[in-house]
Records
---
Amino acid sequence: MKTLIAPSVLAADFANLQRDVEMINGSEADFFHIDIMDGAFVPNISFGLPVCAAINKHAKKPLDVHLMINNPDQYLEAFRDAGAEWISVHLEACTHLHRTIQRIKELGCKAGVAINPHTSVTLLEDIITELDYVCIMSVNPGFGGQKFIEKTYDKVRQLKAIITEAGANTLIEIDGGVDNSNAAALVEAGASILVAGSYVFKHEDPKEAIRLIKG
Ligand code: DX5
Ligand code: ZN
């Protein structure tokens, strides 16, 4: 399977959002990665439901909505209604993660769990068969343009072993600091979905950047 690419709209030009959405539509990208930050779970505020719905109006690929928010249960249905087809919640923000994952599925969405750099992948062992994807954060969530944390490779390999051992089909997504220098090694380690913000939108030819990390 070719690597799935999810350009992060966080790095787009918000004053030219439709132009950037059309760029992704016309590229080899597979998703729109939508970063929702609440200023509480993470120390930054990005954008919310109306912007998600506006992107969805023009997007020709599924929205992968990454909820970096406390109490995500309260907003799951609203994000589904705003166009989310894939939804990830943070393990660190969920007291009843199993219930939250069931709810995402009941809403008809693909269900994912995102984990911060300090969170061990072993904490997913008892829920892995329920997950469509795991988003391993390769930076501390909250901002685009940060440096990739090298320890991520070990985590990907360890998670891949857990998935194989469980006989699950869970996909591994990597989010943060992904570029042309680490994409191939991440896929080699077991990743299937790569999120990329700065690398794509700062590139002089964003479609070419997407093509390059797709491999
Ligand atoms: C970080 C976000 C990422 C971010 C990635 O909190 O979850 O999706 O937009 O941006 P880059 O690729 O610039 O690290
Ligand atoms: Zn993200």
---
Amino acid sequence: EAALFIVATPIGNLADIGVRALYVLSLVDRIAAEDTRNTQHMLTRYDIDKPVLAVHEHNEHEAAARVIEHLRAGERVAYVSDAGTPGISDPGARLVDAVRAANLPVIPLPGASAVTTALSVAGAWAQTFTFIGFLPTKARQRDDAIRALASSEPALVFYEAPHRVVDTVRALAQGLGAERKILIARELTKLHEALHVCPLAEGPAFLEADPNRQRGEFVLVVEGRAPDRDGDDAHLHDTLLVTLLDAL
Ligand code: SAM
């Protein structure tokens, strides 16, 4: 039966593909992909040979129309992004909107994502979190965005590119406070995977101590703002009550 399958693929280690993902990729009539070359490469590694159709930012509209045509013709179509879960700092969401608006089924196939992979090793301080993804690239807008996040109690999860990671960690330390913990997760599931937890203030020096520490792909998880302690709240309420009583 016709359906669009949104299929998560590995974020590095190709062995992380799911059994169901492999099954669906080898069963569908066609695979829509963010980057056809990358996807062909991955499919070759899994021994899957299917027609691949490009769906990326610049042709989203007409590509979605083509996918819908294929689905209406009774085909099963899979969509994959370059790495990880489609729709997570990746294209795919507009295709989902268009296919659902056409009243055709959309089926998720879960799998790797850099955000959940990093969070799985962050620890207890990141149990509640807000996924931010990429910050703006211009310093001014980046700093404004960081300021707007300063009061968040949930931990904050960022994606960052290697050439910006030092500046971003420095800006996070300035905007959020030097004491908060940061997990710097680099090259997850890959050969040079590295995890480091330290106070935000120490992040830039850690990264700068060795150029290799700035290479590859990064997830940054930053501790949220410490919650107001109950005692402080109670104190505030007492003060308010006294003020109100005084006013009577
Ligand atoms: N859709 C992907 C997902 O589900 O995680 C994210 C795609 S986004 C365009 C690429 C960014 O994700 C990278 O710049 C990096 O911040 C993060 N990322 C992807 N793979 C990673 C890995 N193996 N290790 C660390 N970060 C990774």
